[in-house]
Amino acid sequence: MQHSWSISDHQQHLAGSALNELLMPPDPHIFCPQAVPPEYESDVYIIGDAELDNILTTFAKSGLLNNKIVRVDGKGWAKLGDFYPVRRHEARQILFNGSKLVIHSGESIKNVMEIAACGTFQLIGPSVNQSNGIDLSNFQQYNSCEELTQKFEHYWQSVDARRLAASHALAYMKYNQSHLQKTLRLLDIIFT
Questions:
Q1: Confidence tier at 140 by pLDDT (50, 70, 90)
Q2: Taking phi first (over 0 means left), then psi (-120 to 50 degrees means alpha), and beta for anything else, what does residue 177 get?
Q3: How far is CA 48 from CA 9, 33, 104, in A?
Q4: How far apart are CA 56 and CA 99, in angstroms?
Q5: pLDDT at 53
Q6: Range with the lowest mean pLDDT among 75-79, 91-95, 164-168?
Q7: Is 185 exposed, middle or buried (0-12, 13-18, 19+ CB in 10 A)?
Q8: 3-state secondary structure of 108
Q9: How does the average pLDDT of the chain come out, rounded?
Q10: Sign of the Cα pseudo-torsion (42, 45, 51, 52, in order)
């Protein structure tokens, strides 16, 4: 994938308004549903920084995560509770597969795609960039702490609803965001 910031001004001028960015899907041999050893299992995996009064921090302080195994991937979590920090060397695909539910701020569409490709249920925050050709209606999103709390409680209590939503997102990734689909889209961009 070539980012727009790595293209010279001259190349951008030549491309004119036809400059496109195409985000390739995760490697299906790495990011796929798989069983993991018990030490990688968790109830909740939170991706994002714990900043003063943001949605994730307010949610973490609500008490809904009490008595749950919670992994955190971001800054500032040590002050908030008894969470398990994710280390740089840990394979994210194993942690995604070992989690019952992933909550993230939504800042990375790459995370959205990788988690969905693992078949893990996720709640996506309001920061996700919608310009990458991903139809976010295939994923569960939240825009406020109240909405996150409501969806968390619903999906935590309803394992079947959680599995159905995760399966729907996995199928979307497999059939609508595959390497074949992206290649066809790239050819469409090139020849139109």
A1: very high
A2: alpha
A3: 33, 23, 6
A4: 17
A5: 85
A6: 75-79
A7: middle
A8: coil
A9: 85
A10: negative
3-state secondary structure 4-49: HHHCCHHHHHHHHHHCCCCCCCCCCCCCCCCCCCHHHCEEEEEECC
DSSP 83: -
The widest CA-to-CA distance across the chain, in whole angstroms, is: 58
* Rounded-to-10 torsion of CA 94, 98, 104, 108: 20
CA 95, CA 36: separation in Å to the nearest integer? 8
The answer to whether residue 64 scores a pLDDT higher than 70 is: yes
Expressed in angstroms, the distance from the first to the final Cα of the chain is 19
Distance in angstroms (rounded) separating the CA atoms of residues 33 and 14: 42
CB 25 within 8 Å of CB 178? yes
For the residues 48-53, what does the mean pLDDT come to? 91
Are 119 and 98 a contacting pair, CB within 8 Å? no
| Token digits of residue 87 | 């280390």
For 96-135, write each residue's pLDDT tens digit: 999 999 999 988 888 999 999 999 999 999 877 665 667 7
What global pTM score does this model have? Answer: 0.81
Assign 183 to helix, strand or coil. Answer: helix
